[in-house]
Amino acid sequence: MTLSEWEGEFLQSVGERVKTHGRAFADPEKGAPGQALSAMQGRKLKEIAKKAKGEKKRD
Fold first, then answer.
1. CA 12, 54, 5 angle in degrees (round to 5)?
2. Could you give the number of structural domains in the chain?
3. Which one, of 5, 49, 1, lies nearest residue 13 by Cα?
4. CA distance 31 to 18
5. Alpha helices of 22-59 — where are they, by DSSP H?
6. Does some domain include residue 23?
7. Which end of the chain is less crowded, N or C, counting CB atoms within 10 A of the terminal residue's CB?
């Protein structure tokens, strides 16, 4: 399955921010201390990974 343009941009931007800043979010209330991704970013990455593997989205 092909990723959308938005999903590709999201993956690239998250990767760049983690590489540059050690995490991909600025607001400390959106993620646990020491975590690279916020809760929502982690959830979205799991969805994109499933889509890339061809798994269907659960409702």
1. 30
2. 1
3. 5
4. 13
5. 39-53
6. yes
7. C
Is 59 inside a domain boundary?
no
Global model pTM greater than 0.70: yes
Helices 5-21 and 39-53 sit at what angle, rounded to 10 degrees? Answer: 130
Task: Judge whether 58 lies within some domain.
Answer: no
| Paired tokens of 5 | 């343009």
Location of structure tokens 């959830």: 43
Per-residue pLDDT 10s for the chain (59 aa) are 788 999 999 999 999 999 998 888 888 788 877 889 988 999 999 999 998 888 876 65
Residue 1 identity: M
Structural domain boundaries, residue 23:
5-53
